[in-house]
Amino acid sequence: MKQTLxxxxxxxxxxxxxxxxxxxxxxxxxxxxxxxxxxxxWSADGELxxxxxxxxxxxxxxxxxxxxxxxxxxxxxxxxSSQGLLLMHEVxxxxxxxRLPIVxxxxxxxxxxxxxxWSDHNDFLDQRDSGWLMFHAENNQEVLDMVLQAYRIxxxxxxxxxAMVNMDGYVxxxxxxxxxxxxxxxxxxxxxxxxxxxxxxxNRPVTVGPxxxxxxxxxxAQNHVASRNALNVIEEVQDDFEKIFGRRYHLVxxxxxxxxxxxxxxxxxxxxxxxxxxxxMRDEGIKVGLLRLRIIRPWPNEAVAGALKDAKAIAVIDRNxxxxxxxxxxxxxxxxxxxxxxLPLVSGFVVGLGGNPQTESKxxxxxxxxxxxxxxxxxxxxxxxxxEI
Amino acid sequence: xxxxxxxxxxxxxxxxAAKMIGLAAFKMGKQVQDFxxxxxxxxxxxxxxxVRINDDPILERGYVDDPDVVLVLDRTxxxxxxxxxxxSENGVLLVNSEHKPDIDTPAEVKNVDAxxxxxxxxxxxxxxxxxxxxxxxxxxxISIDALNWAIEEELSKYPQxxxxxxxxxxxxxxxxxx
Lengths: 389, 178
Hints:
The complex is a heterodimer. Helix content of chain A is 40%, strand content 18%. Chain A is α/β, with parallel strands linked by helices. Chain A has 2 domains: 4-245, Rossmann fold (3-Layer(aba) Sandwich), CATH 3.40.50.970; 252-383, Rossmann fold, CATH 3.40.50. The model of chain A has no long low-confidence stretch (mean pLDDT 96). Chain B has a single domain, classed as 3-Layer(aba) Sandwich (Pyruvate-ferredoxin Oxidoreductase, domain 3). Chain B is built from 5 helices and 6 strands. Chain B has a 6-stranded mixed β-sheet, covered by helices on one side. The model of chain B has no long low-confidence stretch (mean pLDDT 93). Chain A binds chain B through residues 3, 5, 7, 30, 117, 170-171, 174-178, 269-270, 272-273, 275-276, 279, 357-360, and chain B through 19, 22-23, 26, 31-41, 58-63, 65.
């Protein structure tokens, strides 16, 4: 298959183009800018026929407009980062509550203050309870593939929820990598025209998102059930996806786990470097493997527990922090393991905030600390990048 | 795996240079990864860009801290940035400068006056592409043919005259570099 050199931002833009998004409201922010610039250029060059590319005055307006367009039955794409995602926060709940299958690329960047342009996952994970489906890519091919799959999953009548596809700023968004860009025909076969059963129309007035009283809890429960339904749908679409595109994804990404005694749990682009470090450590005889979290919501409980059940010790590597608590995924992993017959030791490491580079040597350092923890029978929770805090 | 780090100032085209090296190597059938790193996007601030080139898929990301080659587009950075960081005795440090700079490094230090070549051939100080001629000369990692293709690809929106001038500058730089 022919490969093309594109950045993560361009890969997301290709996703929007190939799904024939009808409406793209947008507001620029680093490191998302190039995604929107690419779509703007295509729009100006007439390469997005039937797409309304709408420049707006803020991210709050972008998501509000996205909600409106999706409610009348349009396929909607947008992208944002960091402060822009936080500004959308209020409207994200509305999009999920109205069950609108908007797809948004989020390009992770640390949150102010102080200002950083570089990546960590706090902006993305801050939306964890918004009701959106949340996917996190490791590389540029997965960014494009996830956008295609996100529409198919989000628009499924059993789901009908908005979806976020996250990539790390700079390390993916501005990095050229060879990827396969599928043909429009292939994508049309995988993702037919969007034909929602319920929309607002001129001659068919309906109310969406009305005030409710005791019914409120039913709507929230339905949002939850729809998100849980998505787990099955994610697995179901893989057959079609593989048949058409020749690639297949799983609920979690398992790397050298078969006989692994030590397991590193990672998210996003740092997983690639961690895999390289694991290959080297395997040569030294260290039985270490990796579990990459790629679906954050809905949480793939059984897949995560199944992948970790034979581990002796686990290092949860969080590129985020909940101050006063620790890494955000650390307690999620521990909770997932809680009902296993035999509990592995779990240490937590906060790393790479504001783009602090995650090199192979740092991954090895974490693995050796985990071995020490296992020998001592005592887990830890620490900031791996800093000597002292 | 072959790793290149480029130091420049915002506006000098460090990102573009990395992209062209990436494209050229990709054209030659290699797996590549190129990216730029900057803080506030402003003209004149020190910036870095990176290229990784490999036969197999690349399992490494972010900063290149152990480069095989370092390109310095602007010699005034030598006092500000430790451009030789991570270079070994097998490495090459290539500086855009009339004179060979005195740099404390185990690597081989080379210089080429890319600014003058660019002014002579392109008529503008476009030394980011020009310097790639010297890179082709000192390493076997990219060929002049592949570079020419990358220039045409990356500058396709510009007038043909400018594309040809860039190609001439690259060839001239290749010829004079030693």
